[in-house]
Amino acid sequence: MTDTFQSKDIPIIDFSLFETNQSLCVQQIKLACENLGFFYLKNHGFNEKDVEETFHRIKLYFDQSHEEKLNYKINEHYFGYIDLRQEVLDFKTQKIGDHKESFNFSKFDDNDDPLAQILPPLFNEKKSLFSSLSKKCHQLCLKILQTLAIALEIPQSEGGKHWFEPKHSYDLKSGDCLRVIHYPPTVVNNDQEDIRAGSHSDYGSLTVLFQKDIGGLEILPHNSTEWVPVPIISNCVVINVADCLQFWSKGLFKSIKHRVVFRKDTRNLDRYSIAYFFHAGSDVVLDRIPSKLIPQEDDDNTKYITAETIKMKKDQVLE
């Protein structure tokens, strides 16, 4: 990537090609993951009415009193409510915490009950909505991994296009998390730099992001020094490669820094987003991917590395 990279250069991939022209779909996703690690996906299979209803429900939740939200604060499994300024994604340079609040959902069982938390009433009465979104995000990520396995030409004897799937089963203990986020408005103080979400990369395999109305997401392309906006495109989700997949592919697929900034035209407006963080099972050993496109040299230091090892504690919490 060069410093001339622009927003218009972020790939937009029609995922209906997965069914109608799989070879083209594979080629486009492979190139996007190799060159940038971020891309838009349209015709992704999510019901737009359900997504709109989810955004409506999370707005109702974040509009509640601070005291009510604290009744379901983040638990020992890292699920629940995270307060404004509590998280510091770029702890090396940020002076204060991110200007956002969020709620993390665990995975759900077959009855749409969360596996590792008690939900607030506003979420619990619509738990099937959130359970469905969580599981559909997971299924989408499995399909994307199928395209990457095909692109990597993994032999059928090794699992072929399904090589990644057992390692990312929804039933496995993992760091998977559906997160809903509210970025409140602010009056910018010129004496102190403020940011909605500090610079960071994600630490799983893939992330699915739903944006609505208000932008602010920016990416730092590989080998670039210029931040590039990721505008909202109607009926598209944003997909990005995360750290575990970059490590697993020995750097073939790129996990890059991104952030959410205040824009002058929207800093006085609320921003909402939904993200699904997709992980391999915590105890899954990151075996060599059996692909001739990935170096196969011996490396004793990586023989027993698991997905949990790669899940570094980047989210620093202010005491």
UniProtKB/TrEMBL annotation:
List UniProt keywords, sorted A-Z: Iron, Metal-binding, Oxidoreductase
Biological classification of the source: Eukaryota, Fungi, Fungi incertae sedis, Mucoromycota, Glomeromycotina
Family per record: Belongs to the iron/ascorbate-dependent oxidoreductase family.
Q: Which PANTHER family match?
A: 2-OXOGLUTARATE (2OG) AND FE(II)-DEPENDENT OXYGENASE SUPERFAMILY PROTEIN-RELATED (PTHR47990)
- Ranges for domain Fe2OG dioxygenase: 173-280
| GO function terms (MF aspect) | metal ion binding; oxidoreductase activity
**InterPro entries, A to Z:** DIOX_N, IPNS-like_FE2OG_OXY, IPNS-like_sf, Iron_ascorbate_oxido_reductase, Oxoglu/Fe-dep_dioxygenase_dom
User: What is the name listed in the Swiss-Prot or TrEMBL entry for this protein?
Assistant: Clavaminate synthase-like protein
